[in-house]
Structure formats: structure tokens, C-alpha cells
Design brief:
The protein is built from 14 helices and 15 strands. The protein is of the alpha/beta class.
Length: about 350
């Protein structure tokens, strides 16, 4: 097994844009870790190259509980152990303890360095806290740090976005993930948009922000190795790269997904149902067997997100459409690989839809 993902669903408050499974039942955190370890024990002995604690907000767990998970699941083969973190949950002492507990990669959800934007989307940290936490993490011995930024936020302009990128670069982190805000059905932000409380960023502004991002990060030595991810040489996320490379993985926790190369399965996105099911031995995972056609579609969808692209044979039946996109400057061919250009990555959903 190449990767293990652990979903930690606990959040002190929910961000207005998020539709991931989460809960504010913080009193259940310790029992939840017990449940995770029981679920892990149900699997035959596995080793993995990567271990990833995502959420939710994994940094809301006690360090002792994080250490229990790492000690139980990581082995000598586990090269990368990542934990997502909220700047508001971390102190220098906690970061030192996390590093000693075995976490060797941090993914810090900053999103913006502008306080009004942070407040508007429901983040509970400040820009000052975000900068301070990165400096503390570096002092604590973390030399593989990723930060998340978001663009096309409500009321965000081009100057603010340029300043966010500049401030991120000043911190000297090894990895930067940048996501265009999407309005997921049922989230508070989506409801606010429908109610006319603000206007979404125009498509033109989104495209300008993305092209500027790619240009500036490339100039500073970051490899644009996936549509939303940039890394200094040697610092790509191994865990996420396994997803894009169609590598099997195990998912532990409420709402977590697993994949064995042919079948995708997932735990219930309900805290009580998950915990009771694991403890009582009655956990029911839903699953789907992927057909050859589905695997072909996913190979195109995932491959075109990366700088490695896809094999020409994957789109041989759509060669005319591929040639059209190449002429338009949206795709390029490098040997037997078809790769999306920067402009193509901007229109990736449309391109993929026409190639599958």
C-alpha cells in the first residue's frame, strides 16, 4: 500500500465555503482516535510510503493522540507524514511536540493574508497569526512546509492577490497550494451568493489571477506540477501525487475513501454511525467497482491535472479534438505525452469533458 489517509473531522467552527464532512463535537476527539486505531487493526499488516492527516482540522487533536496515530500506523517505510493545520491552533511548543511525534510535513491553511477576507469566509485566524505560525514551524525544525491560499474570493481584487503571493514567497516555504474558490451547494457562502449578498469574481478576473500566480511562482523556482500545486524541486507532495498517479490507498475515519486499484469504497459521513459501527464490528462501507471505461476516464481527468499529462493512446479516439486544442494553445504534445498549458489548465474542466 502506497498511502494512508486519516480523516479528522473536528472543527471549532465551519468555514463558510467548506463542504467536507466535519463536526463541532469536540468532546469526542479522544474516543475518535481510539476508533481510528480499532479500524486500522481490522486491516492486515500494511506499510505505506505516506501518511496524511486531513480534515476537518487535525491540529485540534491533542499531541498525544496524534503521536498514538503516528506510532501505530507509520513504519520505517513511511517517508512523508503530513498533517493539515489551522494557524489558530498552533504554538511554538505544540509545533516542537508535533515534530517530535513524527510529523515531518505541515500543510497550513492560510487562505489569505488579508484580515477582512479571512473574516468574510469564516476563517478564525488572522494574517499575523498565519505568518507567525510559519516562522514557529521553521524554528521547530520543520523543513517541509506547505501553505494553502485561495483566490477569486468575494471582494478580493488583483492587488490583494498579488500581495498574498508576495507574502507567501517571503516566508520561504517549500510548497504552495492555490485554489480557486468554488461555491458548493448548501454551504453558507453559496447561499449568500444566491441571496445577492455579494458578487462572485468574474471569469476574466479568475483567469488573470491564475496566470499571474503561475508566472510569479515559476519565476521564483517553484515547479507547477499539478493544476493547483507548486513546489520547490524535491518537495512535491508524495501523498497527493499518489492520488493523481492512480495508486491504491487506505482511508481511515468518518467519510474517508479507500481505493485498491479496482474498487473504491468509503466510510459513512456520520460520526456516530462510523464510531458505533467500528466499535460494534458492524461498520458498513459503500463501494463501487470501477469499469474499464471509468478507469480510462479517470486516467484522463487525473493525468491532465499534472505536468506529466497523459499518454497519446488515452485520447487516440479524440485526436481531432486534441489537435484543435493544441492549435489553440490549450494543450501541447511532448513525445508521446499530451500536457495542458497554463491557458489549458484554466479551462481544464471543459477540455476534459470533450476528451472523455
Amino acid at each position: 500500500m502506497q498511502s494512508i489517509y486519516i480523516h479528522i473531522p473536528f472543527c471549532q467552527t465551519r468555514c463558510k465555503y467548506c463542504d467536507f464532512f466535519s463536526t463541532t463535537e469536540l468532546e469526542k476527539r479522544h474516543d475518535y482516535v481510539d476508533t481510528l486505531l480499532t479500524e486500522w487493526a481490522s486491516y492486515p499488516h500494511q506499510t505505506s510510503q505516506t501518511l496524511y492527516l486531513g480534515g476537518g482540522t487535525p491540529s485540534m487533536l491533542e499531541v498525544a493522540d496524534i503521536q498514538r496515530l503516528v506510532q501505530a500506523i507509520a513504519t520505517a517505510d513511511t517517508q512523508e507524514i503530513t498533517m493539515e493545520a489551522n494557524p489558530g491552533d498552533l504554538t511554538l511548543d505544540k509545533l516542537i511536540a508535533l515534530r517530535q511525534a513524527g510529523i515531518n510535513r505541515l500543510s497550513i491553511g492560510i487562505q489569505s493574508f488579508h484580515n477582512p477576507l479571512l473574516r468574510f469566509i469564516g476563517r478564525r485566524h488572522t494574517a499575523k497569526q498565519a505568518r507567525q505560525v510559519v516562522l514557529w514551524a521553521q524554528k521547530a525544525g520543520f523543513d517541509n512546509i506547505s501553505i494553502d491560499l485561495m483566490y477569486a474570493l468575494p471582494r478580493q481584487n488583483m492587488l490583494q492577490w498579488a500581495m498574498d503571493i508576495k507574502k507567501a514567497l517571503r516566508l520561504g516555504v517549500q510548497h504552495i497550494s492555490c485554489y480557486c474558490l468554488t461555491y458548493e451547494e448548501g454551504t453558507p457562502l453559496c447561499n449568500m451568493l444566491k441571496n445577492g449578498e455579494f458578487r462572485a469574481a468574474s471569469e476574466n478576473l479568475q483567469n488573470r489571477m491564475y496566470r499571474y500566480l503561475c508566472k510569479v511562482l515559476a519565476r521564483h523556482g517553484y515547479e507547477h506540477y499539478e493544476v493547483s500545486n507548486f513546489a520547490l524541486p524535491g518537495y512535491r507532495s508524495r501523498h497527493n501525487s499518489n492520488y493523481w498517479n492512480d495508486t491504491p490507498y487506505i482511508g481511515l475515519g468518518a467519510g474517508a475513501h479507500s481505493y485498491d486499484g479496482q474498487t473504491r469504497s468509503w466510510n459513512p459521513s456520520d460520526l456516530s454511525e462510523y464510531m458505533d459501527g467500528v466499535k460494534n464490528g458492524t461498520l458498513v462501507r459503500e463501494s463501487e467497482q470501477l469499469t474499464d471505461e471509468q478507469k480510462h476516464m479517470e486516467r484522463i481527468m487525473l493525468g491532465l491535472r499534472t505536468m506529466e499529462g497523459i499518454d497519446c493512446q488515452d485520447v487516440a479516439s479524440k485526436r481531432d479534438k486534441v489537435n484543435q486544442y493544441i492549435q489553440q494553445g490549450l494543450l501541447r504534445q511532448d513525445g508521446q505525452r499530451i500536457i495542458a498549458t497554463i491557458d489549458g489548465l484554466n479551462l481544464l474542466n471543459c477540455i476534459i469533458e470533450n476528451l472523455i
